[in-house]
Amino acid sequence: MAAMQVARAVPFDACSSLTNSKAVQGKVVLVQRGGCKFWQKSLNAQLARAKAVIIVNKPGSRSVGAMGCGVDPGCEKVGLLSMFVELATGGNALLDATARGEDDAVTDITC
Fold first, then answer.
1. Which of 27, 35, 50, 111 is the most exposed place for a label (fewest CB within 10 A)?
2. Sheet of 106-110, strands arranged across
3. pLDDT tens digits, one per residue of 6-62
4. pTM for this structure?
5. Which domains can be identified in the chain, with CATH numbers?
C-alpha cells in the first residue's frame, strides 16, 4: 500500500485551467463530474502537474460504465491515470475529507 495526498481542483469541475496548481502539483486531484468531458478534466489536471485524477460523481447523476476518449481531438495528450468513483463507493468520503473550503486543502489516502 502507498499513501498519497489528495487535493480538490479549483474550479472543482476542472473544465478550465486549475487556479490552485501549486496545491495540486504532485498530488492526486479530486474533480467533480459535469461541465465538460472526462479527458478535458484530466488534461487540465495534468497541465497543473497532478499525479493522477479521481473524478467523483455528482448527486443525482447516473453511474458511469466506463470512461474513454473515443475520437475526440486532444484526448491523446492525456498521459496520467484517471479514475471515476461513485459517491457511495468512496466519493462521499473523499468529498468530506477535502471539504475544508480552502484552495490548498489536502488529505492523505492509502491505496
1. 111
2. 81-85, 52-56, 28-32, 3-8, 106-110
3. 889 999 999 999 999 999 999 999 999 999 998 999 999 999 999 999 999 887 777
4. 0.81
5. 3-110 (3.50.30.30)
